[in-house]
Design a protein that fits this description.
This protein has helices spanning about 85-95, 130-145, 165-170, 205-210, 220-230, 285-300, 315-325, 340-345, and strands at about 15-25, 30-45, 45-50, 55-60, 65-70, 100-105, 105-110, 120-125, 150-155, 175-185, 200, 235-240, 260-265, 270-280, 305-310, 330-335. It is an alpha+beta fold and about 350 residues long. The protein folds into three domains: about 10-70, SH3 type barrels; about 85-180 and about 335-345, Aminopeptidase, CATH 3.40.630; about 190-305, Gcn5-related N-acetyltransferase (GNAT) (Aminopeptidase, 3-Layer(aba) Sandwich). The chain starts with 16 loop residues before the first strand and ends with a helix.
Length: about 350
């Protein structure tokens, strides 16, 4: 942490971003320490809870603290397009639109028959307009009526994100799942390569494309999936035909499975990438990069200049690819699921 070690935080700093050093043990070489940076979400009965940038919660004994200080709410970003967390959350929601929505104050309840967490969770962008207990009861009831689990998508790691909401949900027994990072990049470099004639673009996904999107059959009806995938301000679909494709792009429904697919939605200056899939036997051929390049070219032609995508934190292959393409982390998010006893009420 640099400089003289001092403990300069207290329970009055709950809700602020802090950096702390704590004692973790001792051995033959002396004491060992660990540093934790995140939002201080509680300080009760001698125990601190800090939510890290990625959304994971860390509990520390007050007696183990050796230093601590308040740090800026959001560190300066050296790379990536400038954007607030709220702007990107709103853009991402428009780019992956739910089939059905309802408002609860500044919260948006989204449902799409269970097709993906993004289209079947609460997007909290402020005050729900009612007491917390009432808000959560209404959320559980609304999703229960549709036969869906109650999920809240909480953002972390940026200015004005949901660390305090995440901590409150955790205290109420809402479990955390599917940790994800939203990443951004300049759009033009993605398209800075020769056009690839293998990649075909279309405005609607055909059955071959939908079959290749593995998550499309994991939950929800195909009708709901199509509404979500084809929704958004200006959507493009990319396909690299598989071996044996007769050149009709799947129009007869009998073509080989695509070697690769992808989706891009253009919304003002933003181009959002999703559903980039490569068949296992065709990996390491640069197909994912080719798909993104052609989609980026289409987005640039519509006036977009910045790119974003969302990838689960444990998907190391995808993270490595996006690192090479210039994407950097903007903020994280994960889902909080209602406890089963609440889900049944």
């Amino acid at each position: 942490m640099g400089g003289r070690l001092e403990l300069r935080i207290s329970a009055d700093d709950v809700g602020k971003r802090v950096s702390v050093r704590s004692l973790t043990g001792s051995g033959g070489t002396g004491p060992t320490f660990t540093d934790t940076v995140g939002v201080l979400t509680s300080w009760t009965d001698g125990v601190l809870s800090i939510t890290r940038r990625g959304g994971q919660s860390v509990r520390l004994e007050e007696s183990a603290l050796v230093a601590g200080k308040v740090v800026p709410a959001a560190p300066a970003r050296r790379r990536g397009p400038a954007a607030t967390t709220r702007e990107l959350r709103e853009v991402a929601a428009r780019g992956w639109p739910a089939v059905e929505t309802a408002r609860l104050g500044e919260w948006t309840l989204r449902a799409s028959g269970g097709f993906t967490g993004r289209a079947n969770s609460v997007l909290p962008l402020g005050d729900p307009g009612v007491a917390p207990d009432t808000a959560l009861e209404r959320v559980v009831h609304w999703y229960g009526e549709r036969g869906l689990p109650a999920l809240v998508q909480v953002a972390t790691g940026g200015a004005d994100t949901d660390e305090m909401l995440a901590a409150e949900l955790e205290r109420r027994g809402w479990t955390a799942e599917r940790f994800t990072v939203l990443r951004t990049a300049a759009l033009a470099p993605l398209a800075d390569r020769e056009p690839d004639p293998r990649v075909r673009l279309s405005r609607r996904p055909d059955e071959v494309w939908l079959d290749a999107y593995r998550r499309g059959s994991s939950a929800g009806s195909s009708e709901d999936a199509l509404k979500v995938l084809a929704g958004g301000p200006s959507v493009w679909f990319a396909t690299v035909p598989g071996d044996g494709d007769g050149g009709d792009g799947g129009a007869d429904g009998g073509s080989a499975a695509p070697a690769a697919i992808g989706r891009c939605v253009v919304d003002g200056r933003w181009a959002g990438f999703a559903a980039v899939e490569v068949s296992p036997e065709r990996r390491r051929e640069g197909l994912a990069t080719a798909v993104m390049a052609e989609l980026a070219r289409a987005a640039l032609a519509e006036g977009a200049s910045a790119a974003y995508l969302q990838v689960e934190s444990g998907n190391t292959d995808a993270l490595a690819l996006y690192d090479r393409l210039g994407f950097v982390d903007h903020h994280g998010y994960h889902y909080r699921r209602a406890p089963r006893d609440r889900a049944r009420t």
